[in-house]
Amino acid sequence: MTSHVFGRSSAARPVAVRGEGCFIFDRDGKAYLDGSGGAAVSCLGHSDPDVRAAVHGQLDDLAFAHTGFFTSDAAETLSDLLIEHAPAGIDRAYLLSGGSEAVEAALKLARQYFLEIGEPGRHRVIARRQSYHGNTLGALAAGGNAWRREKYAPMLVETTHIEPCFEYRYRDDAESSPAYGQRAANALEDEIQRLGPDSVMAFIAEPVVGATAGAVPAVESYFKRIREICDKYGVLLILDEVMCGMGRTGTLFACEQDGISPDIVTIAKGLGAGYMPIGAMLCSDTIYDAIANGSGSFQHGHTYHGHPLAAAAGAAVLKAILDRDLLTRVKAQGALLAEMLDSRFGQHPHIGDLRGRGLFRGIELVADRADKTCFDPARKIHLKVKAAAMQEGLICYPAGGTVDGKHGDHVLLAPPYIISDDELEMLVTRLGRAIDTAIAQ
Ligand code: PMP
């Protein structure tokens, strides 16, 4: 079929017509187990009755009211719930339509904050080489994914990138994990000093790196040291939890497991769970008050900021996560998935690393397990895994790319929180076959 939908891929794709639980069905009736929630989006599966009812109810009452004139019950309910359950020191919510918008807003809020407190020289952002923060120009500039940035480089504002915290690839054999975490974090201090502390506005990082790395958490000591460095130099810490937030790792915010609070945090994907496009930027009262007591308002806004229908979906998703105790379930099913992956791939000659937290898991594919050599990028192993998985009836999220010549193909798994034991078994069986088929090609 000729498709006039301007897609992200030129490859032919099946037409999705129906979703039920952890499955999506195409027009020919083929069922695909959603092993990655699309791209870590569909955390409640595809037919949640409560979210559907909430969206239908809101649509019947009020579809839209512009935030220049009104707030809405849905936006207030969602914001209250988010703040009630957010990390300590996060006091305000700003609702948007997705992850890139949330990151753009975070960067602009940081800049306006420093203008309000009389530090106009602070405009620089430091990020990490192995990161993705969105595709709009500001978020793309922050991200450290070389191939996504390449074509747009002249249009991207200056951002410098330090090394990621990625134990499998960067820890020296003789080094302990905590020592490695300190060393990796100290790269931020070096960079702040190099740029001049008075010029640095923010450091942005994903607590568990998603799209560019395949569920890579930082080692235990890393973010504590990052927090110390940010405090020492008055640099704002922005955590991008667009992919790893909203319970994906077993806590509502991934940074809870790192024992720190950010100044600003962005969320999206699991917030709307795919039922509505929604994202949010949350920030501290310190930032909010500086603006409220200064020029009076955040100089930002989108037409669909605080959209009632999206907010109703977000509130219903968050209530479902909390009321059904899905965080406990994510921890249990995540541990089971990790165990199954270990037994299927733990000794596999082409699997170098299994990692992640909760139902956010990464599998690193290597040509040689002993010396961690990557596959030749020309083989595009990750694309072959994706195609073979679709044949098998499995949606997973493989990606490739090289950072510092060290990072190769990986598969990201992020199934719905409601996934059953049998479905996890099916996921690992189908994935195993897809990986073996791809490598044999
Ligand atoms: N930040 C992170 C960490 C992401 O994973 C993504 C999306 N993959 C984004 C930002 C951008 O979100 P969106 O695609 O909703 O604009």
TrEMBL record:
Top-level EC class as recorded in UniProt: transferase
Any one Gene Ontology molecular-function term assigned to this protein's record: pyridoxal phosphate binding
What keywords are assigned to this protein? Aminotransferase, Pyridoxal phosphate, Transferase
> What's the Enzyme Commission number for this chain?
2.6.1.-
CDD domains named in the record: OAT_like (cd00610)
Question: What cofactor is needed?
Answer: pyridoxal 5'-phosphate
Q: Which PROSITE patterns match?
A: AA_TRANSFER_CLASS_3
Q: Does the keyword Ion transport apply?
A: no
- GO CC, one annotated term: cytosol
* Pfam families the UniProt entry points to: Aminotran_3
What family, per the record?
Belongs to the class-III pyridoxal-phosphate-dependent aminotransferase family.
**What is this protein's record name?**
Putative aminotransferase
Organism of origin is Pontivivens insulae
